[in-house]
Amino acid sequence: MTDALSLIDDWGPEKVVVVSHRRTGMKGVLVIDNTARGIGKGGTRMSPGVTVGEVARLARVMTWKWASVDLFYGGAKAGIVADPSSPGKEAVLRAFARALSNEVPREYVMGLDMGLTECDAAIIQDELGDRGAAVGTPEHLGGVAYDKLGVTGYGVAEAADAAVGSLGLPLAGARVAIQGFGAVGSAAARRFAELGAGVVAVSTAHGSVHDPSGLDVAELLAARDEHGDHFVTRHRQGTALPPGAELTADCDVLVPAALQDVISRDTARQIKAKVVVEGANLPTSEEAQGILAERGITVLPDFVANAGGVVAAAFAMDARYSGFPPDTAAIFETVSTRLRANTVTVLEEARRRSATPHTAGRGLAEERVRAAMRSKGRLPRG
Known about the structure:
Blueprint: E1 15-21, E2 26-34, E3 40-41, E4 44-47, H1 52-68, E5 74-81, H2 89-99, E6 108-109, H3 118-128, H4 146-149, H5 151-166, E7 175-179, H6 183-194, E8 198-204, E9 207-210, H7 217-227, H8 231-234, E10 239-241, E11 253-256, H9 265-270, E12 275-277, H10 286-294, E13 298-300, H11 302-305, H12 308-318, H13 328-353, H14 357-375
Parallel strand pairs: 3-5, 3-6, 4-5, 7-8, 7-11, 11-12, 12-13
Antiparallel strand pairs: 1-2, 2-5, 8-9, 9-10
Helix pairs in contact: 1-14, 2-3, 5-6, 5-12, 5-13, 12-13, 13-14
């Protein structure tokens, strides 16, 4: 069992709230990490394996992600211990929202993460009777439909283009392997194809499909719509491989866009890509990052590469109480501009400091958070 007090360091968390509800069996946690730059904002996930420690790690990532793209919200995350495919999902979700009514939306605004959909965000708003309680609602309710728009995956590809370009290499013609073909991975694949890259491998939990000459992304998307995640074993393109094989496929750009902690030190030694772009949160261990750096492989951190979602969330936060929906074109333009610029800044800082991009990027984010903490009198005197 995680001792919540042991999670506290110089940055946070500021608040850890564990809630439960006997009738529905709901168990969940909210971690508000650092609000020096604004109220807590981060996704809410639902999974049978959610832990306090996991949510705290993700809340910290959000602190760095908001600061990295220089937007004024604080790091936070919430998690619900439940099966998102359960018929009792809505009752659990409503119980969770009620239990956090003291914090939401004054200190934390719920959003979408693993296991939750746009309609779930609408249910949270309905349960609390407040349009400001959650973002990520369907377009017909005035929300920014992240999954439908694919803003996070779009941003991953834009950041990858900037990262490859900073190394003096073109993305057009590059070979890309993507782990995960959900909302992030599939949108990234679509954008990579538009930018002229060749997607040579994709995967789901059921396996991976690989073709060194390139896969037809449009056909993959159609096959996924027809077969779900099983499309990797039923698709006519390429060669079917076991799950995880896509990580070590021969490629130029590797995008882990599924789960956290998938690239260990052993996997890091086998990766053939020149650039790893973290589409998922926390996909590489610190040890793996060091090994990849020693091998001359550039790793673009999650809090830089997948920050398109938080840029879109900032638009959604502004529009929570507005009668006018956010401008989709402005969202995509801002995602591209900010992520490309931030990618170049972080990689240049890493070269200047002879540090990994994770260390350099986190250092830049820490400086912004520390400045806010100092201005608000949150640092020790002396």
